[in-house]
Specification:
With about 350 residues, the chain is of the alpha/beta class. It is built from twelve helices and twelve strands.
Length: about 350
């Protein structure tokens, strides 16, 4: 297939995903029953994933993403592809789909090991893509066993699993990702609308994504009523059984330890210097001035996936409400996956 054929197929897949987001077609039927396979995968969240991908796989976005690579001396249409092992995460629906797209567009072959928490959806999406463009069938293979006969690997998991990946796959060219978290930096002058949008960044996917806000940096003396007032629309999240169980469990553990909490009935706020908060908990940390804040953010820069803020002095920030809507060129951990794959072709690994 030519790159143009692949792009055309992805545009058609994008249209299918947009329709699914509107509760139309086979994918929408899967979304309605997805919680059977994973209790965290609600219909609302799966439909949200479909809509976000549908908005990304359009001509304007794909052209902007791929133009820098196509302009380079080495084309995205190789003569001798290699096999890339893909170990996908399953914390949110289709967590590894961007990596798969990069492999397909770079002309390599993907040997995919899907997460047990999200095994059915990647296969279903690939079936639809192959029905649109049968040429992709040669590029995609799923496996439930060990990854064998690979030339490079892209693996996403926890900090613990990343050590396992390093041990077994460190000899290959690789991208190995571990835990990252996202944070919001507040000034105290945000509008109610901004706080409502921040609620989406906090509660989308129940806070399980690496781009989910798990930490607030707030100025000394911050009035948390401003935050709680903005996120009140998300109060019904406590009606989700798994989320509610986490809320009650974490509240009990913290209170038994004598830890002071701020709560509103569906979210626990705990003062903590950590970044990775449990489900239904949001850590917060005070700062006294801009210099101290920037030093603090720099200390954790290697563990932060994205920052949400409206403050001018915060770098690498995204707008309120957009943490879970990354662009195609917003690579996880800041590592350019397509560039990595291009370099494999320039210097074959076999």
């Amino acid at each position: 297939m030519t790159l143009r054929q692949k792009i055309n197929a992805l545009e058609k897949l994008g249209a299918v995903l947009l329709q699914a987001g509107q509760k139309k077609g086979k994918l929408a039927e899967f979304a309605a029953s997805s919680s059977i396979y994973n209790g965290w995968f609600t219909e609302e969240n799966v439909l949200h994933v479909f809509t976000e991908w549908g908005k990304s796989l359009v001509p304007e976005q794909l052209s902007r993403w791929l133009e820098p690579y196509s302009a380079e001396s080495y084309s995205l249409e190789p003569e001798s592809p290699v096999t890339i092992g893909l170990i996908m995460a399953g914390n949110i629906p289709l967590a590894g789909f961007h990596d798969l797209l990069c492999v397909l567009l770079s002309g390599h072959n993907a040997l995919v090991k899907a997460s047990g928490d999200d095994e059915k959806l990647p296969r279903l999406i690939c079936e639809i893509l192959i029905s649109i463009e049968p040429g992709f069938k040669k590029q995609i293979q799923f496996t439930e066993g060990r990854l064998a006969k690979i030339d490079a690997i892209i693996a996403t998991g926890s900090s613990n699993s990343s050590r396992y990946f390093d041990f077994y796959f460190g000899k290959y060219p690789h991208i190995i990702r571990k835990n990252r978290n996202s944070a919001a930096v507040l000034s105290g002058s945000e509008s109610r609308q901004q706080m409502q949008l921040l609620g989406k960044d906090v509660f989308q996917y129940f806070g399980l994504g690496c781009r989910s806000i798990s930490k607030l940096f707030v100025p000394e003396g911050y009035d948390f009523d401003l935050f709680f007032g903005g996120i009140f629309d998300y109060k019904n999240i406590i009606n989700h059984n798994k989320y509610a169980n986490n809320y009650e469990y974490n509240k009990t553990v913290y209170l038994m330890q004598g830890i002071n909490l701020i709560e509103n009935g569906f979210l626990l706020l705990k003062e903590d210097i950590g970044l990775s908060s449990p489900v239904a908990v949001l850590f917060y940390e005070y700062y006294s001035n801009a210099t101290e804040l920037n030093q603090r953010l720099q200390m954790d820069s290697g563990n932060i996936q994205c920052l949400v803020s409206g403050m001018d002095n915060v770098s690498r920030k995204v707008e309120f409400g957009s943490a879970q809507s990354p662009e195609l060129w917003d690579y996880a951990d800041g590592v350019d996956t397509l560039k990595f794959l291009q370099n494999l072709r320039k210097q074959p690994v076999f």
